[in-house]
Amino acid sequence: MDDALAAVVARLYAVPPEEFVAVRAEEVARARQARDTRLAAAIGKLRKPTVAAWLVNLLAHERPDLVGELLQLGAQLRDAQRELRGGELRELSTRRRSIVAALAKEAARLAGPDRGNLPLPEVEGTLAAALADEAVAAAVQQGALTKSLEYTGFGEPPRPQLRLVQGGEDAPRLSTVTAKRSAPTQDDRQERAEARRREEERRREEEERSRAVRQARRELMTALQQLSDAETAKAEAERAVAAAQKAIASAEKRVKLAQDALADLS
C-alpha cells in the first residue's frame, strides 16, 4: 500500500460507518481530479466497515499506544504458550482480561456519548483474536478492518510450508565427480536396514511426543480460558450482588422515611 492510499485508508476507516460511503466518494473524486486513476480505483474498492470493525479501527488510529500494549501482551502469551509456562500464562491471562475490557471501554468513549447499543462483545472478541493470532494482530494494527474477527481455538498456529528455491546460473553447483564405491556386502545391507528401522522408530517416537505436547498445550489453554471465563462471571456476579444490596438499602431508607411521614400524620 503506497503512502497516498494509506493516508486515505486512515481517514476513511476512522469516520463513522454511516459517513463512509460519502467520504469515500469525495476521496475518489479528489483522486480523479488529480488525474490519479489508479488511486481512484483503489479507493473505490474499499469496503464499508461494520460498527464493531469501526470501533477497533478507531482504537488503531486514535490510541495506537494501547493497541501496541495489546499486541505486546499477545506476543508474550504466545511465547509462554510455546514454552508451557503455566504460572506466567495465568498471570498474562489476567492481564488479557483487563486490557481487553479497557480497550473496549476506550473504543466506546471514542465513539462518543450519543451512540448506544454498541457491539462491544464483538470488539472484545476481535481484540482477543489479535492476542492469539499474529495475522489478526497485524490487521488490527493497520486499522482497516471491515468486519469483526474471532479466534475459535487456542494453540500455536501451523508453521508455513517452506520449499527450497534453486539459484540461477551464478548459483554454486555441486561437482558431478563422485567417489566410486564398492558393492555393499550382506553385513552392510543388514546394518543399513537396522539403521533405517531405528530411524523410523525414532521418528515415530518424536511424532508421538509432538502430538502429546500439542494436546497438552490445547488442554492447558482450554483450562486457562475456562478459568478466565469463570473469574469474569464471578466478578460480574459480585458486581450484581453489590448493586442489588445498594438498591435494597435505598429502598429500605425510602420505606423508613415513608413510615416516619405516616406516623407524623397520624
Can you describe this structure in just a few lines?
The chain is built from 9 helices and no strands. The chain has 266 residues and is mostly helical. The longest helix is centred in the last third of the chain and has 80 residues, at 186-265.
Distance between the termini: 81 Å
Helix content: over 70%
Broad structural category: mainly alpha
pLDDT averaged residue by residue: 79
Strands, count: 0
Which geometry do the CA atoms define? flat
Q: Which residues sit in consecutive blocks of at least 5 with pLDDT less than 50?
A: 154-182
The percent range for strand residues is under 5%
In DSSP terms, counting alpha (H) and pi (I) runs of 4 or more, how many helices? 9
User: Largest beta sheet, briefly?
Assistant: none
N-to-C series of helices and strands: HHHHHHHHH
Global Rg = 30 Å
Question: Would you give an account of this structure?
Answer:
With 266 residues, this protein is an all-alpha fold. The protein is flat. Helix 6 crosses helix 9 and helix 7 (120-132) crosses helix 8 (134-142). Helix content is 73%, strand content 0%. The model is unreliable at 154-182 (pLDDT under 50). The chain contains nine helices and no strands. It starts with a helix and ends with a helix.
